[in-house]
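hey so u asked for the seq, here:
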Amino acid sequence: MTNDVKVDHALKATEAALKAIIWKREKWPAWPKRERRFKFLYGHNYEGMLDRTELRIHMQGNTVRWASWQTLVNAALKQYRYSPVLPTDRETHAIAKAARAIDDEGVVPWLLKRYAEIK
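ran it, structure tokens below
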């Protein structure tokens, strides 16, 4: 896999976890249509999605997890602006680790735990 693909996978996993939490919290009967108030769902707006989950304060409560979040947000900004500069091996490793670290530091496993807690 190329570095670009690895980064894209990490970002898509993060986005999917955020959207799953939003869906479960909102109890929508169907996915919302593209409307101005749901713009964050369609524009890869990770900050907007995190705000909608109301988990920002909890994310910020752990400095390593918050740094991992910032790494992913920065990667998303770079990726979705179609940067001509490919991520280095070091950047790719940091992004993948930020998304999937097994301990409670990884963003995706942490989000999935929060998803499981929602009734």
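The mean pLDDT is 89. The chain has seven helices and no strands.
lmk if thats what u needed
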